[in-house]
Amino acid sequence: MKSALAIRHVPFEDLGILGDVLEGRGFSISYVEAPGADFSAIDALSPDILVILGGPIGVYEEEAYPFLSHEIALIEKRLANKLPTLGICLGCQLMARALGAPVYPSGTKEIGWAPLSFSDAATNSCLAPLAERQSPVLHWHGDTFDLPEGAVHLAGTDACPNQAFSMGDFALALQFHLEATEQGLESWFVGHACEIAATPSISTEKLRADTHQWSGHLEPTAKKVFDMWIDGTGL
Length: 235
Known about the structure:
The chain has one domain (3-233): Class I glutamine amidotransferase (GATase) domain (Rossmann fold). It has helices at residues 17-24, 67-80, 90-98, 128-133, 182-191, 193-198, 204-233, and strands at residues 3-8, 28-33, 49-52, 85-88, 103-114, 117-118, 137-145, 152-156, 164-167, 171-174. The chain is built from seven helices and ten strands. The longest helix is centred in the C-terminal third of the chain and has 30 residues, at 204-233.
């Protein structure tokens, strides 16, 4: 049986829609809880797919969260061996850092549903269904990153020009959240209550209303994106 390992940073930011796709394709799924993990005991090369999920901390906060250095080393080893790896939000930023690019505060919070702009390369990638649809996606970040050397730029916004990139056919990094479900986001609204309250112009009520408007329509497209990426890895 094919295997997928997900590195999770907070309990409520899970695989969501991607988990359904992986299960439907016959993958066994396991989670590593990053804050308490012994990364030296994890074989970076054994899972067929590695997924690095989101979280409310910064890649550059190694002093406050020492596990980050060990996690980055694991991702670096995985990518050096060109094995299928997918990063979402914090996971995207960790991949950028593992590939040698700086990650830093963007100066603004992007939280909520908003559209992306796509590069020409995106139309020939697994993001093509998303680029064709042009519907808003969920953003939830305050950091950004430089594009790693050798990476292909796929998507961005005005506030964060680098929102998605790929490396070969084995690595995909998405700073936005295609995996989140309407039901699952109810836990985010509780878990991120302090951040929501501290960010002007957003509210739980607005996030919930926009989620109800967009998430159900986006879900089939998200599944296509994930399926196309997995197909492209040869799995």
